[in-house]
């Protein structure tokens, strides 16, 4: 049984091939098909997980992700997420998920108004999500960041809810951008929708010596395999 993962491409997306390569590297010979999905598509039927990658969707005009939320594909992404499908938003993809209302809060300009392009340590704070199911809580991963508007903000009530419901997925060990509560990634209540600013797909190649992103992509692969098994079980005989 083959597993299909869709990588959504908006005008201005520039990390889609990083995600395809990263997932392919981690998957090896496990029978995973990773396909690009244009933002004008209106259906994601047949996919077992979706990734919204980094870049500058629609040029980040107005606000990052604010225009991408109106792309035709986002209605299908929302339905897929509501049905329990794994959806991961990385960097600009995280911004799109917040603008689309699939995750709470927002991303604003980094403190100090500086663009960040570096590698930072992050702490895994929950293992109940589609991204972190293969990683022990408390693990410290060194992951690349590459953003100007990665400063996560939310109101006090939302922050309390994120803490109480175990929805903070990753925290910066050394906060680089001013994010509230050192938040580097969050999830929805069910744990199948995850947004994060660091790029795990850029840290899963032995050639560069950077492998800390691999366990996160392995978690996504496990979630997509489980989704594929469910899809197969429910298919008409």
Task: Give the CATH architecture.
Answer: 3-Layer(aba) Sandwich
> Kindly, what is the distance between the CA atoms of the first and last residues, rounded to a whole number of angstroms?
15 Å
As laid out across the biggest beta sheet, the strand order is 2-1-3-4-11-10-9-6-7
The major pleated sheet works out as: 9 strands, mixed
Instruction: Give the averaged pLDDT, no decimals.
Output: 95
How many strand elements?
11
The CATH homologous superfamily: Class I glutamine amidotransferase (GATase) domain
Summary tags:
two-stranded antiparallel ribbon, 11 strands, single chain, alpha/beta
Helix/strand layout:
Layout: E1 3-9, H1 16-27, E2 32-38, E3 49-52, H2 73-82, E4 87-90, H3 92-99, E5 106-108, E6 116-124, E7 140-147, E8 151-153, H4 156-164, E9 168-172, E10 183-187, E11 193-196, H5 214-234
Parallel strand pairs: 1-2, 1-3, 3-4, 4-11
Antiparallel strand pairs: 5-8, 6-7, 6-9, 9-10, 10-11
Helix pairs in contact: 1-5
